[in-house]
Amino acid sequence: MSELSQLVEQARQAFAQAKHPAELEDAKALFLGKSGRITELMKGLSSLSVEEKKTQGAAINETKRAVEGLLQDARQAMADAALAKQLAAEALDVTMPGRRRSTGGLHPVSLTLERIESIFGSMGFDVADGPEIETDWFNFTALNTPADHPARSMHDTFYVEGGQQDAPNLLRTHTSPMQIRHAVQHVKRYQTDIEAGKGMPEIRVIAPGRTYRVDSDATHSPMFHQCEGLWIGENVSFKDLRNVFTRFCQTFFENDDLVLRFRPSFFPFTEPSAEIDIQFPSGPLAGRWLEVAGSGQVHPNVVRNMGLDPERYIGFAFGMGPDRLTMLRYDIGDLRLFFDGDLRFLQQFN
Ligand code: PHE
């Protein structure tokens, strides 16, 4: 092989070995640069005779074009490879099926809360909302449960920063603080009428929400739901409470033959007090008394803390457990299922 064709072969190998554009340009300099091998050959022509110059010059030029051609091919191949790599990296597979956006549904306890609100709403009850972090006053003291009252120990809960030293703030243990909060607002709104002896419109309200106690097993959770009910007027009686609550339970469970029992009980803020039990006439729970709420006539001390005269106003309150109502309605055995977030369970209610 002649020296020149050897040179072309060496250039081909050098270009082929270049891994990226900078290396390729280095290889180019080796052959075509200012002191590259071909340039050096050109310089050497000056010492030759005219005749030799002609033939050698033509041969070197041909070699130069060949090397330039190889360089061009190598550049092109490198650019093609880079583009192919980029295209592969950015590839969009348009044949892939799209991601379906699934529709959510309401939690079974939310369904119950909505149901409670709509049934009581149809009986003229407002819906009120209150804070989950409560003061000791609203959660206990105003509800006739002073600091040394033994009933407080049944409501062990989570105390949080804030409040006074001997009366810290806490996560509410029941929705009953809403009795005071709502009644005080109502009384304030009708203050002038009340002072003028004209009285006020009846208070009829329910207050659903989250409540907290240190309690955890299959039927108790540290966070659970309650729904408070309050009815205050000048002419309300236990019979009215019984009628309204019976109607509520029958509508909620879609069963007009469902019966209620008021069982004497104790709450510091009601006197007399009663536990409300229900009994289904048929079905898997038939014949058993099932506790669904606490209730009673609002204690005169509590009526006073609402800013009302207990000689004139009489009130009835009840507090029910929406979690329990949900368990009974759908025949669910373990309360913890509500809070595990297992979609297989939750999707059954959509
Ligand atoms: N707050 C009571 C409890 O959590 C329930 C209740 C409410 C009782 C209203 C009477 C009246 O146990």
Structure commentary:
- The chain has a seven-stranded mixed sheet, sandwiched between helices.
- A hairpin with a 2-residue loop joins strand 3 and strand 4.
- It folds into two domains: 3-89; 108-349, BirA Bifunctional Protein, domain 2.
- It starts with a helix and ends with a helix.
- The chain has helices spanning 3-17, 21-32, 37-44, 50-89, 108-122, 136-139, 177-189, 191-195, 238-252, 300-305, 322-330, 343-346; strands at residues 126-127, 133-134, 159-164, 167-171, 203-212, 223-233, 259-267, 270-279, 290-298, 314-320.
- The mean pLDDT is 93.
- It is rod-shaped, with a radius of gyration of 44 Å.
- With 350 residues, the protein is α+β, with helices and mostly antiparallel strands.
- Bound molecules: phenylalanine (PHE).
- Residues 174, 176, 267, 270, 273, 294-296, 317-319 line the site of phenylalanine (PHE).
- Phenylalanine is lined by residues 174, 176, 267, 270, 273, 294-296, 317-319.
Per CATH, the architecture of the largest domain is: 2-Layer Sandwich
> According to CATH, what is the class of the largest domain?
Alpha Beta
Name the beta content range: 15-25%
Whole-Å distance between the termini? 84 Å
How is the main sheet built? Answer: 7 strands, mixed
Parts with pLDDT < 50 across at least 5 consecutive residues: none
Q: Would you list the SSEs in sequence order as H and E? A: HHHHHEEHEEHHEEHEEEHEHH
**Sheet/helix structural class:** alpha+beta
Give the averaged pLDDT, no decimals.
93
Strand order of the largest sheet: 1-5-6-10-9-8-7
Q: Please report the total strand number as a whole number.
A: 10
